[in-house]
Amino acid sequence: MQTGQIIKALSGFYEVQSGQQIYRTRARGNFRKRKITPLVGDFVEFESKEQSEGYILEILERQNEMIRPPIANINQVVVIMSAVEPAFSLNLLDRFLIYLESLNVQGTVYLTKTDLISDELYAQIKVSLDYYASIGYRIFAPRTAFTAETIAAIEATFANQTTVFTGQTGAGKSTLLNHIEPKLNLATAEISKSLNRGKHTTRHIELIPINGGLVGDTPGFSSLGLLDVTSETLVDRFPEFREIGQGCKFRTCQHVMEPKCAVKEALEAGQILRSRYDNYLQFRAELKDLRPVYKKSKS
């Protein structure tokens, strides 16, 4: 029996890296009965007589697990946001970031297509992203999207990490990876002008070795629901709310109608980005409208 990490999943097969070798495997037969699905990033025990044929026997304990995209044991997530085509959206960015807060990973934002916008619009976006940097997120927003200096800076964060690239469809995830590692030659596509969104060019999930770490390019999407969060836990997904909220009168303050709320006071004082608070209220409303789905019993 050997141990390794799944680095690619496609059509029921899993490529497992063990040492310097890569083995093509399938999940053992009882995984389906046990309702176990191997994920890219999983550390596994497997057996293989040949590199082209083997079986995954057991999945080792996961550090964390993303729902969308389905990938495990991540240290860093780079959210790729486009300045234009598709249009920059703080609402979508906040949806990504509140999801990442549940995974205990480093959240990083990379802004692309900055060379296609005016100095005025760039300055507006940069002011917002500077706020995100102030609350702990790593921000890359070069005025020219893919400078050698910026590419080197983000590549330096990969060492000894499993990094996932995610974000808007058409925002330039694969383009950025091609600049980081030109040998990849990942497929890219133009966005749809009529729909203001990109075409999906990444069809599967794969971890690629770059600069001493593993980097995943994952399928993008043009919209994102609220994943793995409830109306009760939402407030804790905003790091600045967690910190400032310690000064609220009530320990369970939700920062909406409660008196002597430190978060609302900070908002009025300009210490909290207005769009962050507005998005928080919108997300609360969305979560309250969600209804549980009850399946009929087969008995």
Automatic annotation (TrEMBL):
Family matches, as PROSITE patterns: ENGC_GTPASE (PS50936), G_CP (PS51721)
Family: Belongs to the TRAFAC class YlqF/YawG GTPase family. RsgA subfamily.
Name of the protein in its database record: Small ribosomal subunit biogenesis GTPase RsgA
CP-type G domain segment(s): 63-224
Compartments where found: Cytoplasm
Keywords of this entry: Cytoplasm, GTP-binding, Hydrolase, Metal-binding, Nucleotide-binding, Ribosome biogenesis, RNA-binding, rRNA-binding, Zinc
Entry function: One of several proteins that assist in the late maturation steps of the functional core of the 30S ribosomal subunit. Helps release RbfA from mature subunits. May play a role in the assembly of ribosomal proteins into the subunit. Circularly permuted GTPase that catalyzes slow GTP hydrolysis, GTPase activity is stimulated by the 30S ribosomal subunit.
PANTHER family referenced in this protein's UniProt entry, alphabetically: SMALL RIBOSOMAL SUBUNIT BIOGENESIS GTPASE RSGA, SMALL RIBOSOMAL SUBUNIT BIOGENESIS GTPASE RSGA 1, MITOCHONDRIAL-RELATED
GO CC, any one term: cytoplasm
Residue ranges constituting the EngC GTPase domain according to the UniProt record: 72-222
Keyword Coiled coil tagged: no
Residues where GTP binds: T112, K113, T114, D115, G167, Q168, T169, G170, A171, G172, K173, S174, T175
Cofactor(s) named in the record: Zn(2+)
Pfam families per record: RsgA_GTPase, RsgA_N
Alphabetized GO MF terms: GTP binding; GTPase activity; metal ion binding; rRNA binding
Provenance organism: Latilactobacillus fuchuensis
